[in-house]
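Hi R.,

Quick one: here's the Zinc finger CGNR domain-containing protein sequence you asked about.
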Amino acid sequence: MSVLLGEHGVVRDGGLRAALSSVARAAVELLGGPQTALIRECEAAPCTRLYVDASHRRTRRWCDMRGCGNRAKARVRES
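And here's the predicted structure, written out as tokens:
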């Protein structure tokens, strides 16, 4: 699959099979590479997203601060 910026915006070529192939290739590279130890699951219930913890101290807790992290911190403030 290729993604190009054309005259009328983003142009994708290759279809679903190519897109799934790209996702599978990226997953194999991630799971077989040095970043495997940095894969975490979001701590916010019921979120089950996985992310790569690239934070300086490797202490990231949520997949996204704008969503899961914000809701978790708001719950702590309200209690």
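The longest strand covers residues 2-6.

Cheers,
M.
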